[in-house]
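It would be a great kindness if you could assist me with a short task in structural biology. The full record is reproduced below for your convenience:
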Amino acid sequence: MTASQHPRGKPDASLPVPPVELVAGRVALVVTDPQNDFLSPEGVTWGVVGESVTENGTVENIDALFTAAHAGGIPVFVSPHYYYEHDHGWRFEGALESLMHQIGMFDRKGPLDLDAFEGSGADWLERYKPHIEHPNTTVVSPHKVYGPESNDLVLQLRKRGIEQVILAGMSANLCTESHMRELIEQGFEVVVVSDATAAAKLPEYDGYEAAFLNFRFIASGVWNTATAVDRMGAVSPSSSASSRDGSAVLAVN
């Protein structure tokens, strides 16, 4: 298996493959935007992301990661994307921000209002609800552009003693890549799960391939779901206490 583990078996770049040691009690799964507007055929972006989601098996692979994390006692953090009514008053924005506002992506009335939230584009994909509404899962405050700089993800990870992140979710070249970059800047060791994300495909652009290149250049590791599930399963939850002093680790090449 190549080091990069591209979902469609593309050759790996001639780059180093840093060893990653998953440490019980210090590793978490972070999932960006597991929401209907990205991952449901009824979502407002399905026309441009659906092909990539289907090719990668993204929906099923995110589900597998949730399952493995809960089974292994690995904490899960969800970083969602919401726009409230006051967010539509922004006076400048980037190209895709402008599009998201125009199509009502991730819209909610406000942070304290759940009216019409159930089943909306901003809601969780139905199959993920048992995983997200789980005592092992922390849903952090929403990010507003692409990265976690405007939410409390980093704070919540630090307060739990997390130093390593297994990263998945949507969208590969937007929120997922931006989370990867910021978490690395904040000193976390980040592994991206290559087939548990996807992105828009247009005649002129392939967002997923753009993101994958940066995952490989920047992240500590790029694994597929099968590898991630295997490595997560080898981190014993019973070793979490001893791992505080670094004694329980899993070596990954």
Remarks:
- DSSP finds nine helices and eight strands in the chain.
- Residues 238-253 have pLDDT under 50 and may be disordered.
- Residues 58-72 form the longest helix (15 residues).
